[in-house]
Amino acid sequence: MDGETYEGSTEPAPALKPGLQTTEFYMTPIIGALGALVSFGLLTTPLADSLAGAIAAAVPAVAGLLGAAWTAATYIKKRVELKIALIQK
pLDDT digits over 4-32, tens only? Predict the structure, then answer.
């Protein structure tokens, strides 16, 4: 898809993210599970709607926290590796 253009546009089409990197990938099974719970009578529709809204707000927040934690961990690991390399010289 890279390099292709949208119909009627001269702008290139954006590259697609792998499914695991999208909010849609995670939201789809969660919403499906909530729907199943409502169908089985384990949740009321208003409660499921409330949970879906809360989850929809939480998923990007959790993704941001995980990204920040990953960045910090990677930074610390690289700094430790650098300091060990300098000590061993």
Answer: 666 667 777 777 778 777 778 888 888 88
Give the residue extent of every domain in the chain: 23-87
Radius of gyration of the chain (CA): 21
Q: DSSP labels for the chain?
A: -TT-B-TT--SBPPPPPPGGGSHHHHHHHHHHHHHHHHHTTSS-HHHHHHHHHHHHHHHHHHHHHHHHHHHHHHHHHHHHHHHHHHHT-
Closest by Cα among 33, 37, 32, 1 to 16: 1
Please name the residue that has the structure tokens 């939201």. 27
User: How long a stretch of residues is the chain?
Assistant: 89
CA distance 47 to 54: 11
Mean pLDDT (the chain) is 83
